[in-house]
Design a protein that fits this description.
Blueprint: H1 18-69, E1 83-84, H2 94-101, E2 129-130, E3 137-138, E4 146-149, E5 157-158, E6 170-171, E7 175-179, E8 196-197
Antiparallel strand pairs: 1-4, 2-3, 4-7, 5-6, 7-8
């Protein structure tokens, strides 16, 4: 005798029901909702680490230039005119990085490469690299790195964060570099900002 018509046995059932599929999709969506903030936090920390490494490399490159040539890679004669990038007197820092990358030879006459960051993948919205049209060096959030040099050679530069600069508003450094961070805005108080700096 054959199987009874209309009767489904356990062996015949091989597919998921619509309700089972919806339950699985809902569970996956809930897990993704929980994982996204964690992933975003990890991504933000990775960008901060990259920016810290970049500003450290910038300072190291400028100091190596000074060791090689006995001067900083600038023609400015005052600290105020040797501040590059956002908020600086020189809005584009391409000239500074042109010298450090040996793409210009005005000051770097021996064409020594002191720093070699990659070109930004997206040149219209540069992040994490050099914008080839200007030579500016951009952080992971899309702002140019800011750099201040001791152009008057008194071993100090003005602290760009004036509200918590302390008794002496100057830093005892020949060069400093910083990133504006995720919010892309430089405040007056470093402790209340998400900026990344080279001198701490």
């Amino acid at each position: 005798m054959t199987k009874l018509e209309g009767r489904v046995t356990k062996e015949d059932r091989k597919a998921f029901t619509l309700i089972e599929l919806l339950v699985v999709i809902a569970i996956i969506a809930a897990l993704l909702g929980l994982a996204f903030p964690v992933f975003q936090g990890v991504l933000d920390r990775a960008k901060k680490v990259q920016a810290k490494n970049d500003v450290t490399q910038i300072v190291t490159a400028v100091n190596a230039f000074y060791t090689e040539y006995g001067r900083y890679p600038t023609t400015a004669t005052t600290d105020a005119t040797a501040t590059y990038g956002p908020g600086g007197s020189t809005t584009e820092n391409g000239g500074l990085f042109g010298e450090l990358r040996a793409t210009t030879i005005v000051l770097n006459t021996r064409q020594i490469v002191f720093i070699s960051p990659p070109d930004a993948k997206n040149q219209t919205n540069p992040r994490s690299g050099i914008k080839t049209s200007t030579g500016g060096y951009y952080d992971p959030w899309g702002s140019e790195y800011a750099v201040a040099l001791d152009a008057d050679y008194n071993n100090q530069v003005a602290n760009p964060y004036t509200s918590n600069a302390g008794a002496t508003p100057n830093l005892q450094n020949g060069v400093i570099a910083w990133s504006l961070g995720k919010d892309r805005v430089q405040g007056t108080n470093f402790k209340a900002s998400d900026d990344v700096i080279s001198w701490q």
